[in-house]
Design a protein that fits this description.
66% of the residues lie in helices and 6% in strands. The chain is mainly alpha-helical. The protein is built from five helices and two strands; from the N terminus they run ααββααα.
């Protein structure tokens, strides 16, 4: 099939490029066009879905995307907590007022808890309910819509052809 496809493209003048790993721009375009995030403000559940001709690749992409986002958010939280802990520890050495020290110790405790949660080996940003799944039936193209459009297009083309033929026949009779 690939040989036929490449031959046909060559005849039509369409450039045939060998496969290469996608660039960042191509991945961005794919995600922008095919990734959908359903974030209902009334629900704590966010659904991330993607349209793809290869469901297995899409499943792995979603899984890796979730892991990467979780790792990025975890690292940001760790960095932020470590910075706060450093600042609060420095301030504790300078402050002598008991009320201020108590407030700093309270904030320091909160930041230590944040660092502990971000350091744990469990999901940090979001808990996945399970591995990505795929639809049992194809979600695209919409076959009913295509059928209706094909019928409507056929009727329109048939009407135009019939009108042209009738117009030519009437022009030939005069």
């Amino acid at each position: 099939m690939r040989l036929i496809s490449h031959s046909l493209k060559g005849v039509l003048g369409i450039p045939v490029e060998p496969w290469h790993p996608p660039s960042g721009e191509q991945v961005h375009e794919l995600l922008t066009n095919n990734l959908q995030v359903d974030d209902d403000p009334k629900s704590p559940i966010v659904v991330v879905s993607i349209q793809s001709a290869t469901p297995e690749v899409a499943q792995e992409l979603l899984l890796n995307l979730a892991k990467a986002v979780d790792a990025i958010l975890r690292q940001r939280a760790l960095d932020r907590a470590n910075d706060y802990i450093g600042y609060l520890t420095g301030q504790l050495g300078k402050v002598t007022v008991a009320d201020y020290r108590a407030a700093l110790v309270q904030h320091l405790s909160e930041q230590e808890q944040t660092r502990m949660m971000a350091s744990a080996n469990v999901s940090f940003a979001a808990q996945m309910f399970g591995d990505p799944s795929r639809s049992a039936t194809p979600t695209a193209p919409k076959s009913l819509l295509l059928l209706i459009l094909a019928l409507a297009g056929s009727v329109l083309v048939g009407a135009i052809v019939a009108n042209v033929v009738e117009h030519r026949q009437q022009g030939g009779e005069k």
